[in-house]
Amino acid sequence: MNADATSAARIGLDWLRTAVAPVGAFGRRHDDARAPYGPGDEARAHDEIAGVVALAAQLDRDGVPRARAALRAVPEPTPIVARARVGDPLSDVDFYELGRFVDAVAAVARAWDAAGGDTARRPPALDALRTLLAPGREGAGFYLADAFAPGLRAARETLAAEETAFETRREAIAARVRDAIGIDPAGDEFVVLRDVYDGPLPDDVLVVRETPTYRAAALRVVAPARDAALARLADEEEAARRALAEQVAREADAVAAATDVLGALDRTLARVAFAQRWGGCVPSFGGTQLAFTEATFAPLADALAARGRRYTPVTLALDGVAVLTGPNMGGKSAALATAGFVCACAALGVPPPARAAALPLLGAVTWIGGEGPEDCARLLSSYAAEVVRARETLAAATPRALVLVDEFARTTGPREGRALLVAFVEALRARGAFALVATHFDGVARAAGVAHLQIAGLREHALNALDANDLDAALDAINAAMDYRVVAAHDGEAPSDALALARLLGLGDDVVARARALHDAR
Fold first, then answer.
1. pTM attached to this predicted model
2. Cross-strand bridge partners of residue 293
3. Cβ atoms of residues 425 and 323 within 8 Å
4. At what angle do helices 414-430 and 382-396 cross, to 10 degrees?
5. Which segments of the chain have a pLDDT < 70?
6. Which residues make Cβ contacts (< 8 Å) with residue 57, sequence separation at least 6?
7. Please, is 251 exposed, middle or buried when counting C-beta atoms within 10 Å of its C-beta (0-12, 13-18, 19+)?
8. Per-residue DSSP letters for 385-404?
9. CA-CA distance, 364 to 404, in Å (whole number)?
10. Is 1.10.1420.10 the CATH number for 21-141+242-275?
């Protein structure tokens, strides 16, 4: 489903992508490889959404975030395994990270089991890789244990013997220095002050620097066997690491399969968490209607909840093109956004937060109304920006497009604006697109020959005591007084309740009374 930046922001697509983003690298990679569902993908979309809804009911609500936290903690093994596959040596740090990966996958599996997950989606155990690394995983790190190669033990024992012999020879030379000049060399190098001792130094002591006041000396401990033992151990360890890397490479397919399972599970659990929070239904696809019952525009509901306010779900049935009228602050824009949001949910394989829905899978969603960032960059006025977007929308409109029009042409003269809107609605109808057009212009639906819907509007009996100087109280009163239902409209003047809202929002009674007199006189 295509949506430009402005449309994506207005219908909550950006918010939705963030809300259902996987938490781990495998999930993000899996998600990036999955294109949104579009026309022709109805069966696959239905199956994914149905699976998410079933899991949302099955899985423990506290267990889902714990499983997601375990997914977030899984390290990335792919670069290490890729280097092993091309024959590159691996380091002890690499083997340690692979061990962490094996443990983290097991932790995800345990969290999945604890949440009530099924065996089909359970991450694999990777027992072969665990067994392969086990000899070096005693303690917190990784050690290239003798068990990894037959020559390691002998090489380490030989080196240990040569180290002992080396230390014995060194101590013998140090003893001769102590006996001859009374200096105990703390290390291989030491300083002899001339005013303390200026005679000849013992055998196997080299003078590395001389000055008039001191000589810098070093113990000369020749240990060719020790050097050879060190070189042999280094060769044995390198061979062992290469052999271990070759065995890791043979587990590459199992590791890749595990990351695929983790990626799919991460995507699924992100959607399950969304459904457990917001609810959701399995929509029917393939009909000619865009309809939903008691749908929630989650971004707005989230923002309202943060301010302690209630969201009213929206019910809508759209056959082709309809005009939506109603009062200011009555929820026309929210109804448009909800239509786009439930379609975006379906396109992303997310259960739409509604009691029921019958939806098309769309090729595109376009929002017209208000300036977007690209319009500002092109230095277009609000009216010019809307006209340009309308032109581009008509050029691309198809029966699988949803066009959401919010107060088109409201910034120009009302007679010309109304005429232009009627013609635009007729053009959308002719192209067979789905479109919901919010406006305050009168008679647009009748003139364009499309359905006319309206927001039910203010309940006059609810407009009672109000502190007009308190904006929060005013907003609460408007919310309580407003009937946000989308209902069939009767032809005639589109209600706006503008004067009543002005009074509720604290505009002076004298100003509102004068405005009402002028309105009635007209």
1. 0.83
2. 356
3. yes
4. 20
5. 371-380, 458-482, 491-508, 510, 512, 514-515, 522
6. none
7. buried
8. HHHHHHHHHHHH--TTEEEE
9. 11
10. yes
What's the rounded Cα separation, in Å, for the pair 181 and 168?
A: 20
Compute CA distances 359 → 38, 58, 356, 455, whole Å. Answer: 12, 25, 10, 22
Three-state helix/strand/coil letters over 236-287: HHHHHHHHHHHHHHHCHHHHHHHHHHHHHHHHHHHHHHHHHHHCCCCCEECC
- The CATH architecture that domain 280-494 belongs to is 3-Layer(aba) Sandwich (3.40)
Residue 86 falls in which region: left (phi positive, over 0), alpha (psi -120 to 50) or beta: alpha
Judge whether 41 and 361 are in contact, CB under 8 Å: yes
Domain boundaries, the chain: 21-141+242-275, 148-225, 280-494
Place of tokens 């809307």: 386
Q: How many residues does the chain have?
A: 522
Strand order in the sheet with 214-219: 189-193, 214-219, 205-210
**Token output for 444:** 């647009």
- For the packed helices 298-306 and 332-347, what is the interaxial angle rounded to 10 degrees? 120
Query: Residue 247: beta bridge partners?
Result: none
What phi, psi does 189 have (nearest 5°)?
-115, 145
Among 140, 108, 146, 50, smallest CA distance to 261 is for 108
For the segment 337-354, what is each residue's pLDDT rounded down to a tens digit? 999 999 999 999 999 999
User: From CA 511, how far away is CA 503, in angstroms rounded?
Assistant: 9
pLDDT digits (tens, 9 = 90+) for 40-98: 999 999 999 999 999 999 999 999 999 999 999 999 999 999 999 999 999 999 999 99
User: What's the rounded Cα separation, in Å, for the pair 237 and 258?
Assistant: 29
* Sequential DSSP letters for 439-467: ---TTHHHHHT-EEEEEEEE-GGG-----
